[in-house]
Amino acid sequence: MPRTPVKPGPGSLLNDLPFCLARVALSFRRFNQRTLREVGADDLAPGLASILHAVEESGDCTVNDLVRRTHLPNGTLTGLLDALENDGYIKRIPNPRDGRSWLIALTKSGHRLCEKLHVRHDAVMNVFRQAFTTAEIGAFTALLERATTCMKTYVVEDRKKRRR
């Protein structure tokens, strides 16, 4: 007989922000996969849709532009761009303004995938609009951006310094 899950009580560490974020991350991962599957894009790794949307919005752009727009680290972005290029969604074009860099451009397949991703984005936003007001979505987005910045800029203290 399956057990009914027990919710953590008031004052439980499991209600603190790190645990809530972990639950949200896991739930969003499953939700993300389901919604991608619905539009036939379930083979996309996390981060690829952000890159595709950024390239689509800005047109041909450099890797540095994508780093700024997607907030993905350069090394992570390079690996994801390789995967997108191998799958035929993007192409790298020599940058005529700077011979040391490449421009990233969508292929026809990339544009078709973006169309599917727009359908998916609209469906996902409709789910959130049912749960939150426009103002709450804006506030929630701003808070998540602050949390992301907080975590990205965190530096682990040296253990020796803490023992003193």
What does this structure look like?
- By secondary structure, the protein is mostly helical.
- Helices cover 62% and strands 7% of the residues.
- The protein is built from seven helices and three strands.
- Strands 1-3-2 form a three-stranded antiparallel sheet.
- Helix 2 (48-58) crosses helix 5 (108-131).
- The longest helix has 24 residues, at 108-131.
- The chain is globular.
In short:
The protein is mostly helical and about 160 residues long. It is built from 7 helices and 3 strands; from the N terminus they run ααβααββααα. Helix 2 packs across helix 5 (about 110-130).
Question: How is this fold's topology laid out?
Answer:
Blueprint: H1 17-38, H2 48-58, E1 61-62, H3 63-70, H4 74-86, E2 90-94, E3 102-106, H5 108-131, H6 134-152, H7 159-163
Antiparallel strand pairs: 1-3, 2-3
Strand content: 5-15%
Q: Count of DSSP E strands?
A: 3
**Strand line-up in the sheet with most strands:** 1-3-2
Principal-axis shape equals globular
Helix count from the secondary structure assignment: 7
Pattern of helices and strands:
HHEHHEEHHH
Notable traits:
globular, 3-stranded antiparallel beta sheet, 62% helix
